[in-house]
Amino acid sequence: xxSQLHGAQHFDKSKRTKIEFSEDAMKTVQTIITxxxxxxxxxxxxxxxxxxxxxxxxxxxxxxxxxxxxVLKIKPIEVFEVASxxxxxxxxxxxxxxLEVCQTSSCWLxxxxxxxxxxxxxxxxxxxxxxKDGMFSLKAVECLGSxxxxxxxxxxxxxxxxxxxxxxxxxxxxxxxDGKLRSYTDHDYKNTL
Amino acid sequence: xxxxxxxxxxxxxxxxxxxxxxxxxxxxVAPPAMCYHSKLKTSxxxxxxxxxxxTQGSAANPTPMPKPVASCRTEVMDGMVVENFINKEVLExxxxxxxxxxxxxxxxxxxxxxxxxxxxxxxxxENGAASTRYEFKRREFEVIDIGDxxxxxxxxxxxxxxxxxxxxxxxxxxxxxxxSRGDASEISTYIENVIDNxxxxxxxxxxxxxxxxxxxxxxxxxxxxxxxxxxxRDCKVCSGKSRVWLKGExxxxxxxxxxxxxxxxxxxxxxxxxxxxxxSDWVIEGPSPVNRNSVISQNHYEHxxxxxxxxxxxxxALGFMPLDKKP
Amino acid sequence: MxxxxxxxxxxxxxxxxxxxxxxxGGYASVEKALKTMTPDQVTDEVKKSGLRGRGGAGFPTxxxxxxxxxxxxxxxxxxxxxxxxEPGTFKDRYLMEKIPHALIEGMITASYALGAKVxxxxxxxxxxxxxxxxxxxxxxxxxxxxxxxxxxGTDFSHDCYVQVGGGAYIxxxxxxxxxxxxxxxxxPRIKPPFPAVAGLWGCPTVVNNVETIAxxxxxxxxxxxxxxxxxxxKSTGTKLISxxxxxxxxxxxxxxxxxxVEEFIFSEEYCGGIRNGKKLKxxxxxxxxxxxxPADLILKTANGEPRLMSYESxxxxxxxxxxxxxxxxxxxxxxxxxxxxxxxxxxxxxHHESCxxxxxxxxxxxxxxxxxxxxxxxxxxxxxVDLLWDxxxxxxxxxxxxxxxxxxxxVAAAIRHFRQEFIDIAKSKKFVDIxxxxxxxxxxx
Lengths: 193, 327, 445
Fold this sequence. Notes:
The structure holds 3 protein chains of 3 kinds.
Chain A: H1 23-33, H2 45-55, H3 62-72, H4 76-85, E1 97-102, H5 105-109, H6 112-123, E2 136-141, E3 153-155, E4 158-160, H7 165-178
Parallel strand pairs in A: 1-2
Antiparallel strand pairs in A: 1-3, 3-4
Helix pairs in contact in A: 2-3, 3-4
Chain B: E1 2-5, E2 8-11, H1 18-25, E3 51-56, E4 69-70, E5 80-83, H2 88-103, H3 119-127, E6 143-145, E7 150-153, H4 162-170, E8 176-179, E9 186-189, H5 202-206, E10 212-214, E11 227-232, E12 241-247, E13 250-255, H6 270-274, E14 283-287, H7 301-318
Parallel strand pairs in B: 1-5
Antiparallel strand pairs in B: 1-2, 3-4, 3-5, 6-7, 7-10, 8-9, 11-12, 11-14, 12-13
Helix pairs in contact in B: 2-3
Chain C: H1 18-23, H2 28-36, H3 39-49, H4 61-66, E1 77-82, H5 91-98, H6 100-114, E2 118-123, H7 128-143, E3 159-164, H8 174-181, E4 205-209, H9 210-222, H10 224-228, E5 231-232, E6 235-236, E7 238-245, E8 251-256, E9 259-260, H11 261-266, E10 280-284, E11 292-294, H12 295-299, E12 308-309, H13 311-314, H14 318-321, E13 329-334, H15 339-353, H16 359-377, H17 383-395, H18 403-428, H19 436-443
Parallel strand pairs in C: 1-2, 1-4, 2-3, 7-13
Antiparallel strand pairs in C: 5-6, 7-8, 9-12, 10-11, 10-13
Helix pairs in contact in C: 2-6, 2-9, 3-6, 5-6, 6-9, 15-16, 15-18, 16-17, 16-18, 17-18
């Protein structure tokens, strides 16, 4: 709630580093921009922020937001306004795997609270925290459209549904083992619907 | 187009909103407005204080509108019938809106520079309840400087969007906006924390509360001890038509002139606002018109003298003898 | 057994590919519309079908289409609302994941009717993997000539793009969706103007739900009059119901409108009854925002007639004894469920999802959550029930968009039908979550 939540406001300009999209990412960005009529390229902002978040360490640093503003030729404040509005953009560094456990009605009716507590105990952090090794962040989120396969959690592009304690163990072990950064834009998603 | 508001009919041009039509009739029917600002395009609709009941949509389609509407963003239709102060439902709903606006407001009026010219203070006084039903911790933000001339008290902000629209519409480089969402939303700048362009100071004038205040006037004087005069100067950047707030011979602050609805008449530049604080900088035209209900009017000696004369006349007519004149 | 016209083929292997979809009669509506019908004839068939918006509001689709302004030389757009976020609802996800071409086929046919050269599918960001499925299907459709220039050798050319959101329930509101699609914060617009006149980039736009657009295909294939014979009264056709909660067989079911609620909950063909032999306590019938109903009122109307799964029957009795079909998010609660705690999850949801633009919703949703939390803490007083009632009444109908109502209705209904539960907590100063063991059973493998 305090302004301090946002890295952008306490950002030291002199420490800015230069960043650039990879060739592949730039190609995707340019394709996305062709989806809109001439002059309406601002429409590409949301998809491009997803790509930027995946490309630059799983969060949107002030440098990243500046860069996106530069690529889209819009004002940096327009990027900041949007990035801070939507829940999928991280304005602070996060763990490589963000475990997002749904807690709304149907998931609650099916034990989401216990799943959350179980994960907290298992990886030794509370909701909103990141493990010391930077591997996991834990978030309690609102309905992800998995009510029929509750309880569930999302990590990157993957949906892990019909969770049991056993399943949670396996998912977390798998993620720990490969140690990769998980993004919403990943192509190797898993879902169990 | 004919529209009837609280039983008073008026003819207005097409495209007029209910609020504008009500203001044409006068303050007796005009709904209060916090986020609408006549000089800012697309302003209004957010705060919901100006909601009214449309009991007849138009002559052609007399069905009432099912929900109360924001009068500032609803255009008049021919034959429309609107209820504002005469409708209990509207007054109750407005009371609710005022309560919502106040539950997270710090109520720090004693130390707020806006006190005395605050729209929220007036609104609370006119429509609020005497006590609060909110028992939780109020939202808190740090007080920050946005530039060397403007202080942002986010705690006091009611998210009217006026300052954002001002920056969008009268400057060409907006660097502040509304960030985050829901009740965590806040006015913020991006990285630099500085709003700096020739017209940036106008965000202070459009702010209906004490969220954006003039640092050069901060804690200098309660507004009701200052005397506003309309003045002008030769300015290359803006019209130079300003309101100069005096205490004796001293210029305490300079603002834009505001109309009877407390909305800026003409935006002024930062040079007029901040850099011309001597009476000799200004050609004074005369005392600014101040609403009789405003606390600021009490310092208008002209009015005070008139009042004294009236009182004397009345007393004379009734055969009173002032105490100090009694033998 | 009710008729099915949307997901009857969902179990066919490979139905997500163009080849299998086409072999099972896919894209027939595009062929029929483009080759044998004028755009207005397509709209007429949709009007005749009586199809109503499947996203929640239930507005007649044909009528919505006919409102679309058609000024010369101005582009028109069709936007598909795939921002499915209403708690309890997951039918669009199922449809898009299993049969993506059903949506794309509908997009082409509907765009032809509306004269839209470009259409967008706005999908919620969390469904990123579904976006991949849709992207792939779109690529297949371009390859086979169903999208692109001069489709089937006609004058009609069409481009369809899929756009991803960033995580915001409010973008399911059509004008917030358009703002988001323009790369802005998802703040609902003040209406009028409606999207049909000034929508995407100020151009005339129709925004329809995934299921609505997919339903256009069977309507064109069988004809509007024939489609209107499915269902009951003004609730024509079929509806996808997302069933979840304490039932034996949660999942997405296509039902013929008019199916008795009792049959839907207890028959083996659908939900298969309440889990663990428990009794039914309450149902949220159309997604989190519609009023919750206790067992007796969801199974029978106040007049003692069987309650049916239809727009009219579910809303029979108004909000006093009825509810709404809404988005078809059907959440079932057994006898051990705390209505107060469930309400808390809803209140937290709406507080989290309020955009913050207008004051009653921005301030009111958080306030309601805090008060309901007092019940969960066991610190609430009896007067808090009345306060809660008063706050919801001051949000409802006072906001820019329907999120205000969506947040207020569940609170009102929970108090209306389960007031005693609130009072008991307030009196005893204790909150006991009786269903905890039941839930734990499910997740301890």
